[in-house]
Amino acid sequence: MRANLDMTHGLIMAEAVTFALAEKIGKRDAHHLVRGGEQKSRCGKQHLRDVLTGGFKSHRAAQH
Asked: pTM (2 decimals)?
C-alpha cells in the first residue's frame, strides 16, 4: 500500500484529505487548497503531503 501512495505522490488520497480538511476550514477552502496542491504535486513531482503541509500553514497564517 505504501508503494501505491509513493507511486502516485499521495494523489490517491486527495479526496479523503479534502473531506477531512472541509470539517476544519470549510468545503470550498478545502477544495481549493487540495486542488492547488494536486497541481503543484504533479508539476513538481512532490508528494501531496509535503505540498499541502506548506499550503495549509500559509492558509492558517492568512486567517490570523
From this structure: 0.73
Q: What backbone torsions phi and psi does residue 9 show, to the nearest 5 degrees?
A: 55, 30
Q: What is the grid cell recorded at 26?
A: 470549510
Distance CA 19, CA 11 (A): 14
User: What would the DSSP string read from start to end of the chain?
Assistant: -HHHHHHTTTGGGHHHHHHHHHHHH-HHHHHHHHHHHHHHHHHHT--HHHHHHHHHHHHHHHH-
Q: Is the dihedral of CA 9, 12, 14, 17 positive or negative?
A: negative
What grid cell was written down for 51? 505540498
Residue 64 and residue 53: Cα distance in Å, rounded? 17
Confidence grade of residue 64 (pLDDT, cut at 50, 70, 90): low
